[in-house]
Amino acid sequence: KVRHLTHPVPQLLTISLEMVCRVLSLVVFFLVLSGCATEKMNTGPLFHRVEGLGPDQAVVYLYVTRQEDPMNVRIFSNEELVTHLEGPGYYPLITAPPVRSFQLRLSRLRINVVPIQIEARHSYFLKVSNDRPIRGRSRAKLIEVPEAQALAEIADCRLMRQ
Fold first, then answer.
1. How many C-beta atoms lie closer than 10 Å to residue 83's C-beta?
2. Is the pLDDT of residue 107 over 80?
3. Rg of the chain over all Cα atoms, to the nearest angstrom
């Protein structure tokens, strides 16, 4: 009788590689499902105006359009974090008069400050604009946009979570 010996290591390697591929596939699937894709923050409904403001409230819409290069910025108002804007989308901030100052920050760097004289029952639009980088530095800035222009730009933006 001739006995053929089979070595268990190649079989174990085959099983181990197959298991690793299955586990990696599951990890990728759940990452995409949980929102770790490139536009993870803009999962809300398309833009619509905030209605039902109180007599002493105003709304400031913070937004990034699809035309801008992808970026992850933090928006502060009166030195308090309001939201992170990541990719195209918008975030409505309901606030009260009189003055608020808004800052855009990348990492710890404060890019610019935009003061707004807030009036009750009015809407304001602040856009994150990102000019092409110079020498590796972002030229992102926060700009106040006239309402007509903003409404045209923000129409296809989705609501971002805070």
1. 20
2. no
3. 24
Residue partners of 129: CB distance under 8 A and separation at least 6: 68, 140, 141, 142, 143
Contact criterion met (CB below 8 Å) for 156 and 94: no
Nearest to 47 by CA among 152, 150, 146, 154: 154
Task: Record the pTM.
Answer: 0.69
Which positions ≥6 away from 144 have C-beta within 8 Å? 114, 116, 124, 125, 126
For residues 73, 76, 81, 84, the Cα torsion angle rounded to the nearest 10 degrees is -20
pLDDT digits (tens, 9 = 90+) for 120-144: 999 999 998 876 555 555 567 889 9
In total, the chain counts a number of residues equal to 162
- In 3D, which of 125, 124, 128 has the Cα closest to residue 141? 128
DSSP state, residue 97: S
Give the Cα separation of 100 and 120 in Å (integer).
13
- Torsion on CA atoms 38, 36, 82, 143, rounded to nearest 10: 0
User: Terminal CA-to-CA distance of the chain, rounded, Å?
Assistant: 74
Task: Please name the residue ranges forming H helices in the chain.
Answer: 8-33, 147-154
pLDDT (mean) for 58-62 = 95
